[in-house]
Design brief:
heterodimer; A: 226 residues; mainly alpha; MetI-like fold; globular; disordered C terminus; B: 384 residues; alpha+beta; Rossmann fold; OB fold (Dihydrolipoamide Acetyltransferase, E2P); 2 domains; six-stranded mixed beta sheet; five-stranded antiparallel beta sheet; 10 helices; 23% helix; 32% strand
Chain lengths: 226, 384
């Protein structure tokens, strides 16, 4: 089974990671905003639940998702009346990546929002902007750098996801075999040449992500204040 | 003096603060009102209640016919619908926008607020000219000095077409010389703006120079309200005149008088305060255009510290002080060494600080005719 094209693995990995990042962005940023700005009962519990996947073994998260999505699980065919048709497909890999990157994006977004002086938002209100206009014209632009960093972190977490993905989506060549599982498989069967190439690709992806993040959080970036 | 439209702001609010409760009942209707009081007396909290930025405020607020707050009726108008121009101490410029876009954000806020903002709209170019902002427009906010920041914040607020300006110690972040240089700018604003303003200050000079009405706040309560000079010199509103002096820069109460420069050609200038009452002062800094030319009469503010004025019971001879002015004593607080004198009807009273025993030794009392001795160098000129 050696010689699986590196390009196919890379494209699948990027597809999974981009999808997971896009789907996570809005809920994670909204959750980060709520945790930073609102006081509500059960806030600590919500914050803990959001953080949980960070401290659990990824395989445990994957297995939990598996139980939820299984035929007789709360999100399975018996309960919903139809089949989400996720398991062992690339979509399952997306779900696993989302579960693992949501905590990271939420926590980083929360810090980004906490770095925005609420008095600047109050100022916007006195100038005539309503709550939504204040959010889109001031809060989000002011938190933009931190939010971008949050999304990049989530993206890299999605690229590197292994444990939850293997548990939920399997390791099917061409379907759910992402970079992380491809390196593992190649090494297992002794195809060191493929493992080497995949490793170099992973290194390059990681370096790019780090540079972009550092650029965003450095003073050289044009705008933002977090 | 100002073109500000008449308005009426009825305040009856309560708000628990950390160490005491803010409980203010007052009605404001003057073009320019000062909220005055020592630090920690609740001035900023009061302003934020007016701007609609505080939660948990109880009571009632009404601006003309518009109810801003009524706990009884369960109504509270949002900050964006009140149409006030809030200029907080630190300016709070938007750090992700440059100066030009900060200024424009005020006008955009006015459009965002729609019909709810009904104050007079000032054009961008007029704001830039009035506040002398042209050289700053392309600057980043982080590179501005304290005074520049305040001017931009004020310009942004004006752009939002406020019906009422709320200025929280507009000059406090600046050092004293700069503050005094900016006083004329605020005076000009006051006379050119068509928006009433409420400003927080604990500088008696600013209050006298800028305001028609003075509200003294102490531990969250209004303890006095009235014409600034009258209120400022009534020490029962303060723990002691020492407290008032301590609030004043330089440790002495400073009288502020408006006058007209009638001669600035020599080493000593002449400033006319009222009919025939002329003070000799150091020459004021001349406008560049007038250098070498004839004296143009122009308005100045003149600061005179209470401790820099001497009192004599007879007209002295052979004395170096350039000003010897007859005056009448209108109030006397011997124990504190505070003498209030009047130079002429129509002029505001002046406060003179003397040693506690002096009034007894001189045999002066309310109604006594005295002479004030003032050195030309003791007169501080603050520009027009």
């Amino acid at each position: 089974m050696s010689g699986e094209p590196v390009l196919d693995v890379l494209l699948l990995t990027l597809r999974v990671a981009f999808s997971a990042t896009l789907l996570t962005a809005v809920p994670a940023i909204a959750l980060g905003y709520a945790l930073a700005r609102w006081r509500f009962p059960g806030k600590r519990l919500v914050a803990s639940l959001v953080t949980l996947p960070l401290v659990l073994p990824p395989t445990a998260v994957g297995f939990l998702l598996l139980r939820l999505l299984a035929v007789d699980g709360p999100l399975g065919r018996h309960t919903l009346g139809f089949d989400l048709d996720l398991l062992l497909t690339w979509k399952a890999a997306v779900v696993a990546a989302m579960a693992m990157s949501l905590p990271l994006v939420t926590r980083t977004a929360r810090v980004a929002f906490e770095g925005v002086d609420p008095r600047l938002e109050a100022m916007a209100r006195t100038l005539g902007y309503g709550p939504w206009q204040t959010l889109f014209r001031f809060t989000l632009p002011l938190a933009a750098r931190g939010l971008s960093a949050a999304l990049i972190l989530g993206f890299t977490r999605a690229i590197g996801e292994f444990g939850a993905t293997v548990t939920l989506a399997g390791n099917i060549p061409g379907q759910t075999r992402t970079l992380a599982s491809a390196i593992f498989s190649a090494q297992q069967v002794g195809d060191l040449a493929t493992a080497d190439r995949l490793m170099v690709v992973a290194l390059l992806l990681g370096l790019v992500a780090i540079w972009v993040t550092e650029w965003l959080t450095s003073a050289k970036a044009p705008r933002g204040t977090t | 003096m100002t073109a500000a439209p008449s308005y009426r702001l009825e305040i009856d609010v309560e708000l628990p603060l950390e160490h005491f409760e803010l409980a203010v009942q007052v009605c404001l209707d003057q073009p320019s009102t000062a909220i005055f009081g020592p630090s920690g007396s609740g001035k900023t909290s009061l302003l934020e209640c007016l701007a609609g930025l505080r939660r948990g405020v109880r009571g009632a607020l009404r601006f003309n016919e518009q109810v801003w707050l009524s706990t009884a009726q369960g109504r509270r108008l949002s900050a964006e619908a009140r149409g006030v121009g809030w200029v907080p101490q630190e300016g709070l410029l938007f750090p992700h926008l440059d100066v030009r876009r900060n200024l424009l954000s005020g006008a955009a806020g006015r459009r965002a607020g729609g019909r709810r903002r009904q104050g007079p709209a000032m054009a961008f170019d007029d704001i830039v000219e009035l506040l002398e902002l042209a050289p700053l427009l392309e600057r980043r906010v982080a590179t501005l000095s304290g005074g520049e920041r305040q001017r931009v914040a004020l310009g942004r607020a004006l752009g939002s077409a406020p019906r009422l300006l709320l200025l929280d110690e507009p000059l406090s972040s600046l050092d004293l010389p700069l503050r005094r240089r900016l006083l004329p700018l605020l005076r000009r604003l006051r006379s050119e703006l068509t928006v009433p303003m409420i400003l927080i200050s604990h500088d008696p000079v600013e209050v006298q120079a800028l305001c028609d009405d003075l509200v003294v706040l102490r531990r969250g309560r209004v303890v006095a309200q009235g014409e600034p000079r009258q209120v400022l010199v009534e020490p029962q509103h303060f723990a002691s005149t020492r407290e008032l002096s301590a609030m004043a820069e330089g440790g002495s109460y400073e009288n502020v008088l408006a006058g007209t420069v009638i001669d600035d050609q020599g080493h000593i200038a002449a400033v006319e305060l009222a009919d025939g009452i002329v003070l000799r002062t150091e020459p004021p800094p001349r406008p560049a255009s007038a250098v070498g030319g004839a004296t143009q009469p122009r308005q100045v503010l003149l600061g005179l510290r209470a401790s820099d004025i001497l009192i004599a019971t007879e007209r002295p001879h052979g004395i170096s002080a350039r000003n010897v002015l007859p005056a009448r004593i209108v109030a006397l607080r011997a124990a504190e060494g505070v003498v209030t004198v009047q130079l002429a009807a129509g002029l505001p009273p002046l406060v003179v600080q003397v040693a506690a025993e002096t009034s007894a030794e001189l045999g002066i009392d309310v109604g006594s005719r005295v002479y004030l001795l003032i050195k030309a160098t003791a007169c501080r000129l603050y520009g027009s």
